[in-house]
Amino acid sequence: MLHEPLHARPDNTPLDMAGLLEILAHNSARPRYAFMVLNLIARAARPNGSAGPDVVQGGALIPLRDWLCDALTPMGHREPGRIALALRVRRDLEAAGSLPAEPEEAERVVEAETRARIRTSSKTNISRAVSDLVRAGMIVRHYQGYRVDHHNRGAQRQAVYTLTPVARRLLQPHSPPATVAPPMRQASLPFG
């Protein structure tokens, strides 16, 4: 758990970026990854600090967790695990007889299936990182949407992550106070 309050360091100086990283180091097994997730959430967040349940990208609505997974996918592009997964996907498609004969089209299909499998497994990593951020006092998490015949938080319910005031001050320094911004369903990102 936290060893100091989020608003100040032990010597009562305001929390700065180095202090935030120290808090993440004490609350996460993967502090660098948690910081990347936190930074992406801050970029997707509206002025009130809330991100999700959807992000607008290229004119389409994408669930926040899917967007985070896609944004972090290039980080592992050259990892041996990703290369091995692409080879397994190619073998699986060949065995199923669903790999196109045209090399460019086959590469596109393998890449799309590899990305889909990575997105599925990455959601677990995102959830762990967000849990670490919640424990560190950087994020508040809730779910929004409609629950249909489901006993837990799934089934058409999507994650919404809200930066705490300290995280907003450090990662969105030019944002107005949370009470000024009206609630909105989607965020429009300046990139992608």
Automatic annotation (TrEMBL):
Residues 173-192 are annotated as: Disordered. This is Uncharacterized protein.
